[in-house]
Amino acid sequence: MRPPADAIGTLALIVGVIASLIFIGVEAALVYAIWRYRASRNLAGQPATFERNRRLEIAWTAAPALILAAVFVLTLGTMAEINGAGVAPAMRIAATGHQWWWEFGYGGTKTANELHVPVNTPIDLDLTSVDVIHSFWVPELGPKMDMLPGTTNHLRVLARRAGSYEGQCAEFCGVEHAWMRIRVVAQSQAEFDSWLAAQAVPAVTQGGDGERVFFLSNICVNCHTVRGTAAAGTAGPDLTHVASRATIGAGVLPNDVARMRAWLADPQRYKPGSLMPRVPLSDADLDALAAYLGALK
Amino acid sequence: MTAIPLWVRRPAGERVGWLRTVDHKAIGVLYIGMGVAFFAVGGLEALLLRAQLATPEAGLVDPETFNQAFTVHGVTMILLAVVPLLVGFANYMVPLMIGAPDVAFPRLNALSFWLSLVGGVVLYFSFLAGGAPDTGWFSYAPLSERAFAPGTGVDYYILGLAVNGAGTIIGAINLSVTILLMRCPGMAISRVPLFVWMTLVTSVLILGAYPALTAALVMLLVDRQLSGHFFDPAGGGQAVLWQHLFWFFGHPEVYIMVLPAMGMISEVIPVFSRKPIFGYGFVAGSSVAIAFLSFGVWAHHMFAVGLGDTENAIFSATSMLIAIPTGVKIFNWIATMIGGRLRMTTAMLFAVGFIAMFVIGGLSGVSLAVVPIDLAVTDSYYVVAHLHYVLFGGTMLGIFAGAYYWFPKMTGRLLSERLGRWHFWLTFAGFNLTFLPQHWLGAVGMPRRVFTYAASTGWGPLNLISTIGAAILAIAMVVFFVNLVRSLRSGEIAGDDPWDAFTLEWSTTSPPPPENFATIPAVTGRRPLWDRKHPEARDKS
């Protein structure tokens, strides 16, 4: 099947050309009328007195109707095509919206904010939300689809080019709507398989001070999971392989140990309103915690 | 020319003042004053939004303030500025245009104005009461439920809109009864001026649409204050139900805001073309068609909700259908100009500007009826651009045309044409600079309602251009306010009929006396004043 984005592109081009022709025609008629009949030209004689022409009026009612009928037929065709046109998806990925981050589920393996897909493969996303309405939108992949609590919607995705695609939530979902960015990584099937295999294994933690801080007073583990440890919170993103992801806070910071430390010190500074609170930690604890998370490749 | 003040005298000669007035003209002026004031406030909110978005990752305002500002900007412009401005002109002009001494229910008229105003005040009181609503003007559930919006902002939104809506509904009853029952002798419904036709159609739309909003607001109030579950999926409710109810109101609301402005330019264009309107029957009839269809297109706001292909296809078809009667009007206005003698006054410039800009909004509207294109660009800046081409490029330019046209009737003085030209061209440039680039921003991925955007997106330059455009637009509005104030004090004296116009409001003094006409006029055609001035060339209809 064609990528949905291409199908929409073709339709948009056709509609765009028709709209441009109508636009040029109407504006030209308007400019002509002003130029030709302006009083400052001191035209001879009296203004015309005609006030109706049934045939003309029927014609300019029927012509747009015919054009729109044609556009509607094309619309129906493209609607069927972008839904998959009978082509079964090669895989399904669960995508769940949270205020203000994304959870992606490959069977039992969960990750966050970064959607990996095999290139040139039709995939269906099963979209839902745990809180308010969000909308999954990666412009280069074509259509968007809302994520509603209590309902599952489906979106056909097909990435033709290997590499990364940027997107973000399109339905206003609260204070940090602007920083709910999506990163899609399209990889060859082999790369994707090895990525998924790596994501599926539990974390190999370095233990030590960082792990001690992570479990301190149940602060981090209340909301976050690190598979392979006792941390099993589900309110925040799964951190089992957090260091493998490109950004922190759904796009608000690039992901490296120094920025992770800054983020941990005060998430509210970078993402005010985020549900991750500022936790008072000593400098030594912050260093250890950032190093611990930075090792979760 | 007698200079009769705007306030009304009771039969005994007692002055009643603005607070107690029941005169339709004074109430019209109050409505317009309310609209102008809220338009200024909503404009300042828009400038704040544009200032924050001028550069990527800016920190001029915090996200909370930004979200309140765009929510209140939308509600203000739609319900507290545009609708009162249109209702205000209708209140003032409709009785004059149909040769009536007042509206059918003058006291009810005062009630509708004060309810509308109090609704606006209640909404703005939220700023003092702990924070304005911050869930967007259509305030989707469950974001607007108490679990996600625990402050009082949404409650003030509910109360403000419900009270304001009650005023608008009462006003619509009043205007429709007035138009149906109070036309002067000879003024058949097929002879009323097109602005009156549009007001009638709009009133019917209000009666159908606003109650749906009121119902939805009450349900949301029950959810928030009485722990109801209408829109709460966790409690067995339906989040999408809010969207159905809201847009059942929301889409007719677009036509409630556009049709009266179309009525205004349908008065202005013939007068300044020195010709009768082309295809009166088509212009009036197409509005009735729009009104019917507008109740069957609401789900085109919801194509990305996942209603299914069948539902989406049906609403796509009805949405395309409504483009036909809308397009017909454009052809009629241009045909009215053909063969005329066009006096390019400021009023006419704004009327022509309406046509030029509304075409863009109409065509982008058709593109949004095409489901796959909508799925790509809905909820993005493309939609922001589209709706401003309809509501600013269309409605506001139409209101400015009406303002320059009718100001002399309402005040006895002309607005300055020199400042008017500055106002028009600055508006035209600023408007297009602000909103044209937003089509591209939306198409490449900028969602609406984001308080900032990453520098890596590359959206900075177009946003900066848009913000510069907004600044120019603000200057244009300052020019207009200066024009209003100066012309009110020292504008050229207008006389009864400065434009050599066609309709009855120009047959009485400027401003008109409290009883409007010394004797109730009788008419024999669509252009009664023309007929009176040119008995040898009377209209036949």
Which structural traits does this protein have?
heterodimer; A: 297 residues; alpha+beta; Helix Hairpins; Immunoglobulin-like; 3 domains; 5-stranded mixed beta sheet; 3-stranded mixed beta sheet; 7 helices; 12 strands; B: 541 residues; mainly alpha; Cytochrome C Oxidase, Chain A; 66% helix; globular; disordered N terminus
* The level-1 CATH class of the largest domain in chain A: Mainly Beta
Give the % helix of chain A: 25-40%
Q: What is the assigned CATH homologous superfamily of the largest domain in chain A?
A: Cupredoxins -  blue copper proteins
CATH topology of chain B: Cytochrome C Oxidase, Chain A
Number of structural units classed as domains of chain A: 3
Class based on secondary structure composition and strand pairing of chain A: alpha+beta
CA distance, first residue to last residue of chain B? 31 Å
Q: What do the pLDDT scores of chain B average to?
A: 95
The proportion of strand residues of chain A reads 15-25%
Helix fraction of chain B, binned, reads 55-70%
Describe the structure in your own words.
The complex is a heterodimer of chains A (about 300) and B (about 550). With about 300 residues, chain A is of the alpha+beta class. Helix content of chain A is about 35%, strand content about 20%. Chain A folds into 3 domains: about 5-80, Helix Hairpins; about 90-190, Sandwich (Immunoglobulin-like), CATH 2.60.40.420; about 210-295, Sandwich (Immunoglobulin-like). In chain A, a hairpin with a 2-residue loop joins strand 1 (about 90-100) and strand 2 (about 100-105). The two termini of chain A are about 35 Å apart. Chain B has helices at about 15-20, 25-55, 65-95, 105-130, 155-180, 195-225, 240-275, 280-295, 310-320, 325-335, 345-370, 370-375, 380-410, 415-445, 460-490, 530-535. Chain B has about 550 residues and is an all-alpha fold. In chain B, helix 3 packs antiparallel against helix 4 (about 105-130). The radius of gyration of chain B is 23 Å and the shape is globular. Chain B has a single domain (about 30-530), classed as Up-down Bundle (Cytochrome C Oxidase, Chain A). Mean pLDDT of chain B is about 95; it is low at about 1-10. The two termini of chain B are about 30 Å apart. Chains A and B meet through helix 1, helix 2 and strand 9 of A and helix 3, helix 7, helix 8, helix 9 and helix 10 of B.
